Automatic annotation (TrEMBL):
NCBIfam families: hdxy_isourate. Homotetramer. Keywords: Hydrolase, Purine metabolism. Its EC number is 3.5.2.17. Residues 6-114 form the Transthyretin/hydroxyisourate hydrolase domain. Substrate binds at H9, R46, Y112. It comes from Muricoccus roseus. Catalyzes the hydrolysis of 5-hydroxyisourate (HIU) to 2-oxo-4-hydroxy-4-carboxy-5-ureidoimidazoline (OHCU). GO terms for molecular function: hydroxyisourate hydrolase activity. Belongs to the transthyretin family. 5-hydroxyisourate hydrolase subfamily. This is 5-hydroxyisourate hydrolase. The keyword Hydrolase applies. It catalyses: 5-hydroxyisourate + H2O = 5-hydroxy-2-oxo-4-ureido-2,5-dihydro-1H-imidazole-5-carboxylate + H(+).
Amino acid sequence: MKPSALSTHVLDTANGIPAAGMALELWRMEPEPALLARTVTNADGRTDAPLLTPESFRPGRYELRFDVGAYFAARGEDPGYLGTVTLNVGLKAEAGHYHVPLLCSPWSYSTYRGS
């Protein structure tokens, strides 16, 4: 059995750099929406600690909310039309480490289950 955990990182694909200083939130959506964490990415575009550790992990639906528009505006760039990018993910117990990267520009984003 693999313990489950959750981490993320953000890459600014418009500038080819880690998205340092991007605000993000983690919400648990079941049974009622609840804010679990609010943090900011570090110089490497990652959070300083996992969003969910094996000890705090519970299976279910979660949302990661990334403040993409504010990040680009703070850099003095056109924030495009993206504001908050929301990723709704279903996490299972004993499925190993979930790593959810966000690749973004002011006009687009993509994600995948990383390692």
